[in-house]
Design a protein that fits this description.
This protein is an alpha/beta fold. It has 3 domains: about 240 residues, Rossmann fold (3-Layer(aba) Sandwich); about 180 residues, Rossmann fold, CATH 3.40.50.300; about 70 residues, no CATH class. Helices cover about 35% and strands about 25% of the residues. The protein is built from 18 helices and 24 strands. A 6-stranded mixed β-sheet has the order 6-9-10-3-11-12, with helices on both faces. A 6-stranded mixed β-sheet has the order 18-21-22-15-23-24, sandwiched between helices. The protein has a 4-stranded antiparallel β-sheet with strand order 2-1-4-5, with helices on one face. A hairpin with a 3-residue loop joins strand 13 and strand 14. Helix 14 crosses helix 15. Its main location: membrane. It is a peripheral membrane protein.
């Protein structure tokens, strides 16, 4: 795509970044007003690092940047935002104990003499939320009470407030419903019409082809392509990203399903999870599908003891004995592990090393009398770094310096060392590139060949259809239907996902005239 220099809003020249090892080298890139530039590549390729440098969160080791023809050296995210460079990151920048409205306008709360004008704040918040399809949410709701998908939409809405010249979206649709994705795309078109330059980071190539004009591909910290996206097929882009071909078929190897390893019976919690029952056999991958808010994460948390059920039972073991799980510690003792969807908030100690994070769930193996043996801890971490293919400088590297995909591998590696029988995966490939996804899929296959029972929640229907033996569909908190492999279609799964809400809405409609009378 050729464009006159006058249309360049931001440019980077010779940008490099080194932590314990180089992660970016010699990056030359320009952003044009009113265009969407797709930025993609494997996890660890440098996408997030480059975007953080542009957004003021990181300083480059080498190179320079220009914004509207002037030297651009933001010392912080707030400095970048004041100049009109905004970034919506995978790790959300929200305060869970404040309301949606307060988060939206935290830096510019309306009021006088220290008193907040709540009426004005609420009105402004409603207008901001309407831009991203959040009209149904009360702006006075605490952000911590929202699911991850809705929190991400709040973060997007926050960054669209005020003057915006460059908007960086890092995996913006990873946890969004189809309706929310469409709302986001509409907003992107509006921003383009206003002349905003957008950097759209994603591994979903069909989305990139839909919204972007150009694509920049990073591999191992270097730009390998900056071209019109229409010139490349999805297969060509994948080859550029990973340096090898990947098919759309997956061989999980020869497996034999054993006895039932997990039995959930009539589990309930308020209006979130309603009388859900299912079984998972050894060597089986049981997928759970459904819309955001259907109760998928809540169900896993109940099984794991992170939340307490109002009723229902969980049975595990060869003899399928009902067990009392009142906490995650109880679940781990019974051989149940949870790989959470919120790896940064709940799965990792970001300021600690890989060794410390993997050792965290295996203290009995790396400590004695309360003292951690650093050599044993490092050896344990090194084993998982090699087994999982974690890109790092070694066990001592701080987890916050890793890419999202490699952080996820650290979380999974912790539980593989624990050797649990039942593993609950909540969005295991969220924010992970296509190459790393297939690595995770093959890992799941290896676990089933070892006789593990896996429960996988995912927002990606194609992912579930690729890896699962059966798929249960949650809708409005209820398990609507369970499909066997080769007896499902994407249309059937989607129809089941909406069915519970349609039934609920019909019952509410029937009840309304009776209440009125």
């Amino acid at each position: 795509m050729s464009a006159p220099d006058a249309s360049v809003v931001l440019s980077v020249s010779g940008i490099g970044k080194t932590y314990t090892q180089p992660v970016l080298a010699g990056i030359d890139l320009s952003l044009y007003r009113g265009e969407v530039l797709a930025l993609t590549g494997e996890n660890g390729a440098g996408k997030s690092t480059l975007s953080k440098i542009i957004g003021g969160l990181e300083a480059p080791t080498l190179g320079q940047m220009q914004f509207n023809g002037q030297a651009y050296t933001p010392g912080s995210r707030s400095q970048a935002e004041r100049q009109g460079v905004r970034m919506v990151m995978q790790e959300l920048n929200l305060l869970p104990t404040l309301t949606v409205a307060e988060n939206l306008f935290l830096d510019n709360l309306p009021g006088r003499m220290g008193w907040i004008n709540r009426k004005q704040l609420r009105k402004a918040a409603i207008e901001a939320m309407a831009q991203v399809g959040l009209e149904a949410i009360d702006p006075d709701t605490l952000v911590g009470a929202l699911g991850i998908g809705h929190q991400q939409m709040v973060e997007i809405a926050r960054n669209l407030i005020g003057d915006c010249h460059v908007l960086i979206l890092d995996e913006p649709t990873a946890m969004l419903t189809a309706r929310e994705v469409e709302m986001l795309f509409v907003q992107i078109e509006r921003l383009q019409a206003r002349g905003v330059a957008i950097v759209y980071i994603s591994h979903r190539l069909e989305e990139l082809a839909r919204v972007a004009q150009r694509i920049a591909v990073l591999r191992d910290g270097c730009l390998v392509c900056v071209e019109p996206i229409a010139d490349y097929s999805s297969e060509q882009l994948v080859n550029l990203m990973v340096g090898r071909e990947l098919g759309d078929q997956l061989d999980l190897g020869v497996r034999s399903l054993g006895d039932t390893a997990l039995k959930v019976s009539g589990i309930c919690r308020a209006d979130k999870v309603k009388n859900v029952s299912f079984e998972v056999r050894k060597g089986e991958i049981f997928g759970i599908s459904g819309l955001i808010g259907a109760g998928r994460t809540e169900l896993l948390r109940l099984i794991y003891g992170a939340d307490l059920a109002d009723s229902g039972t969980v049975a595990v073991g060869s003899a399928l004995q009902v067990v009392s799980i009142r906490s995650p510690a109880d679940a781990v003792k019974q051989g149940i592990a949870l790989i959470t969807e919120d790896r940064k908030g709940e799965g990792l100690l970001l300021t600690q090393s890989i060794s410390a994070n993997i050792g965290l769930g295996n203290m009995h193996r790396v400590s004695s009398a309360g003292v951690v043996n650093s050599q044993q801890e490092a050896a344990l971490a090194r084993r998982q770094i090699d087994a999982m293919g974690i890109r790092s400088s070694g066990p001592e590297q701080v987890v916050s310096q890793l890419s999202g995909g490699n952080q996820q591998k650290v979380v999974i590696g912790r539980w593989l060392e624990r050797d649990c029988t039942v593993l609950l995966f909540d969005e295991p490939t969220r924010g992970i590139d296509i190459g790393a996804k297939f690595d995770i899929y093959r890992l799941l296959g290896e676990l089933t060949r070892q006789g593990k029972a896996l429960v996988v929640v995912s927002s990606d229907l194609r992912e579930l259809m690729l890896i699962c033996d059966r798929i249960g569909v949650l809708s409005a908190g209820r398990l609507i239907e369970t499909f066997e492999r080769d007896s499902w279609s994407q249309e059937q799964l989607l129809a089941a996902a909406f069915a519970g809400y349609q039934k609920r809405d019909a019952l509410l409609t029937e009840a309304a005239p009776k209440e009125a009378s």
